[in-house]
């Protein structure tokens, strides 16, 4: 729903965050009589109407002292960004252009609400936490590069010289991985044999990937790479992950190239546990 929801007291804040679910929630912490807060107020209202796919909340630090303390607010205006009640980013100051850039950055990586029924309670789609600038894909086609498989549309990632791909995914903060989605076509080009490595100190090449022991090895069946497929990971081995490297060794039909139509991870940010356990003293 477009518009800014004003939080009247501390008890309203968490229910509003819960209602936002996986949608981006932008929370403005303000204070009566604060000049910069007053200056940016019209722009914040306008942004709430411009980006109705996000939830916009306003919290007065005097009316909601507990919420302000829990979120360590030391200056106003401060804008906090949440998904699934997890704080993912912040922005300070009254620069409307900078604030909108931050909102657009997070909405570009919006997994949408359609995935909620596929994700176990307590976990979330980690696409918003993927740092695209830190990602790398070796042997990707010039026409069908890695970023294509991060979008739910007709585009796709395809290998170039042969069927193998070496994909490194960087996260913007440490995460715990529960499962992943690695979708491909049913024409034989879908990925089959996968080796997964985590937190490598440097990029590896194909020769290293072939000979190195992975964190987990997978043999994917046709059902795993369908649109409704979910690939379980050994959760205990993926508890503090900054980066993941996927070595796609082969595809299902021994085809010349491999295609990946969509790719994401399911899990939680590591910081989520600490935030949920926080109690104001």
From TrEMBL:
Tagged with keyword Disulfide bond: yes
Alphabetical list of InterPro entries matching this protein:
Galactose-bd-like_sf, PITH_dom, PITH_dom_sf, Thioredoxin-like_sf, Thioredoxin_CS, Thioredoxin_domain
Task: Please state every residue range assigned to the domain named PITH.
Answer: 115-281
Matching entries from Gene3D superfamilies are given as: Glutaredoxin, PITH domain
Q: Show the GO cellular component annotation of the record.
A: cytoplasm
Q: Which residues form a coiled coil?
A: none
- Which keywords, in A-to-Z order, does the entry hold? Disulfide bond, Redox-active center
Q: What is this protein called?
A: TXNL1 protein
Species source reads Chloropsis cyanopogon
Gene name per UniProt: Txnl1
